[in-house]
Amino acid sequence: EAQLFILALYGPGIEGQRDSTIGVSTSLLLSTDLMVISRTDGFARAAGHRFLHQATLDDLSELVSEPSVRILLDLGLRDISLSTLQQTFSAEVLDQSVAFGPHVHTELLQAAQQAGFGRVVSRGQFMSQVGLLLPPGDQDSS
Question: What's the Cα-to-Cα distance from 20 to each of 23, 36, 53, 114, 139, rounded to whole Å?
């Protein structure tokens, strides 16, 4: 069964990038941090995922309807709220998802946990464990 993994960070849009490969494991990244984008891209592709990134949660209806979604959320984002994610995604999706942010922002990390994220880690932990957070995807994109 193909899965969709959403990595909520911050980056350029994916307009025109959605295609017939949407059924293969997909990682969607939103991030202002170029190092996070680059590192996550490398690990996502190594895990066999199709890698996408965009700036907001706008126009995700096609992606949200996928049977399995994993969100990796950069809590440093100003334009994406935890309440919006709770309204957009099911409790099951949030439970299998990961939020990360600066270790000094304990209230924000606790808010993500209270919002239902199954795993909340510091930015440093995310950067060192991103490969472990992305399970192997479907290598067959046909």
Answer: 7, 27, 17, 36, 15
In the structure encoding, which two tokens stand for residue 70, read together? 């994993």
- What phi, psi does 64 have (nearest 5°)? -65, -30
Distance, in Å, from the CA atom of 90 to the CA atom of 76, rounded to the nearest integer, reads 22
Q: What angle do CA 81, 112, 32 make, to 5 degrees?
A: 55
From 60, 71, 49, select the one nearest 138 (Cα to Cα): 49
The yes-or-no verdict on residue 98 having pLDDT over 50 is: yes
Residue, of 114 and 48, whose pLDDT is higher: 114
Distance (Å) of CA 125 to CA 41, 67, 77, 142? 17, 28, 18, 34
Cα(116)–Cα(119) distance, rounded to whole angstroms? Answer: 9
Token pair listed for 105: 């922002």
